[in-house]
Amino acid sequence: MDSWPDEAAHTPLLRQRWRDALVQAMPEAEWHWQWPDDEAVLRRVQVVVAANPPSGRWQQLPSLALVQSVWAGVERLLADDTLPAHVRLARMVDPRMSLAMGETATWAVLSLHRHFFDLAAQQAAGQWQVPLQSPASEFRVGLLGYGELGRQVARPLQALGYPVSAWTRTPRDTAEVDGITLRHGPEGLRQMRREAQVLVNLLPLTADTRGLLAAPLWSDGPEGIHLVNLARGAHVVDADLLAALDTGQVGRAVLDVFHAEPLPAAHPFWHHPRVTVLPHCAAQTDPVTAAQVVARNLRTFQAQGLLDYEVARQRGY
User: Which domain holds residue 107?
Assistant: First the structure.
């Protein structure tokens, strides 16, 4: 089985960690770390392990059967209309990345609930004001998306006493799971908007979810709801969010993802007093645990034709 990761890592050291981890997890594979020049090698390649492989070159790989992403989001791969329809796709669900997402979401929710962002601003201004303190039980968290990441985010929040609701685009078999109230569809989203104090976005980016976080949502409920966006920048209509922040319809926003990354220096998010900008660092794929996920999936695929976390192209995730 021939495969290689692309330049998904940000530094040479991290790239080397990926290479070492993949070789250790699956030493029997013939790994190639760059797109091969040898036509014989190209003809042998069955699997590509990558974040953003080069578009328009798939025809060079006649034996390609699988693209295993090292990222949780696969919208760029799905947008590549040169990828043959018969090639199967699998997304990454890395246990360490999922735990890190839970940590970041918990930090953000705690900071919003307990006014820690306001306190940091007070310190910068040399002000001493004690905020009102309310129990976690009165601060409902609404999760947008309830897959593996949603479950990992919900657990620590529930352990701290926060009531949690979760919204999915399509209905589930039950109205509640693991103590979490489930909602779905447009009416379920409106209901969650009205009952939650903070929305934590974990949705995949699809045609149905692009631009979901926009003026109609912000205006349909009480003032002061907070947003934590840990999914994709394109879920948010930036101008609508800025307007909602300025009117108080949205209280604060913690944003880890953006339409353009790095976030342009002139973007108003940088200097808005109620926006916290993170450099897309909420949860990073860990090479060691992710390589084990890759190896397990490739071996199962090779032996049985089965995949964990296979992407349904029509659904978009």
Answer: 96-277
